[in-house]
Amino acid sequence: MQIRSSLRQLWRESRANPGFTALYIGGVAFAVAFTMVYAIIYYVNIAPLYPEYHRDTTSYAAYIQIRNDSTSSTQGSLISKKFIDEFISNSENIEFCSIIAPTGYEGATISTPNGTIKAVSKLTDRNFFRLYDYEFLAGRPFSEIEVESEKPFFVVITNTIAERVFGSPENAVGSEILIDYRPHKVVGVIRRGNPVANTSYADIIRPYTITPMSMSGYNGSLKDYLGSFCAYIKFSDSRQRERFMAEYNDKISRAADADGFKINGAKIKTHYEGLLEGNEAEPIPLENAVRSLIIMLLVLLIVPAINISGMIGGQMDRRLAETGLRRSFGATRGNLIRQVMFENFVLTLAGGLIGFLIAWGIVLIGRRQLLQLLVSSWEMIDAPIDISAEMLFAPAIFIGALLFCLILNLLSAYIPARLSLRRPIVNSLNSKR
């Protein structure tokens, strides 16, 4: 097959049937565009994005439930530091553990000479900066001594806060900033993250010891494990996680107190399990989440393919005389099928490129609505709306969309072309007598 002559043939057909060409390219473009938008929503939740580059080896412990079977009393909440110390952080089967109060638990107010700034505050420890690869533009993370210090209070802020309050990151380090009407010493300035990476996102990061958030004081009761923290656990690989989970589940099964309480639930989830299953109170079965994803992808893939296949079938009926004539001069069915597949590939590629542009336009123009699909509204306290380049130009999305185009091409072109070319040459030649 000569590519140049095939392209000339396609150009003649497109000029002769502009309506078919426009509908075909437009159908592919919108199918690819909506598939890409759908893929972006999932991609930014699972892909390694700044600063969450270790999502595949990070697990989360957040919710605990204790139950007394004799009284049917059940209590549940986030976990306490005591629970983290006894069940997680002292294990040899982890790299390290970070204590974090979830984003949105405490919205902070920064006082400036020009007014106040609402900010997302995260309370955590030094290991937070090992878990999340924030880029320090100036200064450093707070130290272990500074975490345990009662006064003065220490804080790491983002470059946007530093520029608004101090003019530059360099001027911020060592300076004092008023947060919730209490003075804090700035020890570091990081490059701002993205609200999409909501487990790490914050405008200001402070030691968790700044305020008591543990429901302890029950003198050995399992109620001491109820608190207001999450534990983010970093593993070296899946095998280390398996060893830890065996150790952890054994500890959980043996935990009990004198009042008859036992731990009824304290699941540790991987990053992907957390996305698919939802929260602990209303978990979504894994098979249901996967089924809904497959159905949505099938709708986005199969329905346009069926429509385009019907269009190509009609186009092949109009070209019966042409194909009959070419076959009578020696063209084989294989040659004609390759010609049709090539033409369909070029049109699909054109539609795919337009679809890329449409998808990027939707994401850029509707980025606020898109972020609301990705991040709960309570987590977005004056959060800047940002769609980064690594979301738009991710290789995984490009490759996925390209595969989508190829599958769409094969499904929509091969079957009608094959069926049309089964007709005898005489019938094809007589189709326009």
Give the tags.
433 residues; alpha+beta; 2 domains; six-stranded mixed barrel; four-stranded antiparallel beta sheet; 16 helices; 20% strand; elongated; cell membrane; ABC transporter permease; membrane
What does this protein look like?
One of its GO terms (molecular function) is transmembrane transporter activity. The longest helix has 33 residues, at 286-318. The protein has 433 residues and is α+β, with helices and mostly antiparallel strands. 49% of the residues lie in helices and 20% in strands. α2 (18-46) packs antiparallel against α10, α2 (18-46) packs across α12 (333-365) and α12 (333-365) packs antiparallel against α15. The strands form two sheets. A six-stranded mixed barrel has the order 4-5-10-7-9-8. A four-stranded antiparallel β-sheet has the order 11-3-2-13. Mean pLDDT is 78; it is low at 279-283, 377-381 and 425-429. The protein has helices spanning 3-16, 18-46, 81-89, 128-131, 144-148, 159-165, 169-172, 238-254, 271-277, 286-318, 320-328, 333-365, 367-374, 389-392, 395-420, 425-429, and strands spanning 58-61, 63-68, 73-79, 96-112, 115-124, 136-139, 153-158, 176-179, 182-190, 204-207, 226-227, 230-234, 261-265, 268-270. It has two domains: 3-50 and 286-432, no CATH class; 63-279, no CATH class. β8 (176-179) and β9 (182-190) form a beta hairpin.
